[in-house]
Prior knowledge:
- By secondary structure, the protein is α/β, with parallel strands linked by helices.
- It has helices at residues 15-22, 78-90, 96-108, 115-130, 148-158, 176-181, 210-217; strands spanning 3-7, 26-29, 43-48, 51-56, 59-60, 72-73, 135-138, 163-166, 185-188.
- Pfam families: WbqC.
- This is WbqC family protein.
Amino acid sequence: MKKVAILQSNYIPWKGYFDLIRSVDEFVLYDDMQYTKNDWRNRNKIKTREGVAWLTIPVRQETLAQTIRETKISNPLWHKQHWKTLAQNYAKAAHFKEYKDVFAELYLGGTEVYLSEINRKFITAINALLGITTTIRCSSEFTLAPGKSERLLALCQSLGATSYLSGPAASDYLDVAIFTEAGIAVEWMDYSGYPEYPQLFPPFEHGVSIVDLLFNQGKNAINFMKRVER
């Protein structure tokens, strides 16, 4: 039995993204998909004294057909501003000092020029902090088939999957029948029912970056995520 999930890479994603990763045996960063503006690919939310705010990586979109992995950073100083903003707003979080050096290195030691590389670096590092051992792959490692659902099915088949865990948004287009015909069960991720945790700057907000949970709860963060059974 082997469970696989496939999602586009996001910048410092929320806890649900990491729950999906830890729910499967292999996770594919689907960065051959079209880059979409004003989406989660290059931005995410954090808590600040003034309320929820966006951290956005400035990127260069040269064509509408541009893929995520073709997308380059437009301002090489973005990482300094993001780290400064995080440090200012989370300095008083209970576990900020515990992770300060890790995130300082991720931000200030970075030389990547492609968005996809940045996202993968942060996702991999955060997986390690959360104790997630799921194998991470990139869609660029595979020959991709034409067709939305057909491409996802081919990726699952290449990985020897017996089940495919999908995000709920794909229910609008995913052709479940072709997975069933291929002997691959389709499951849907459920993002409901998360417990609240002590968070700076009330009111409580679930839909923020995983860094909020880490800085506030440290190694206890996993207890505010889903109970995963594989």
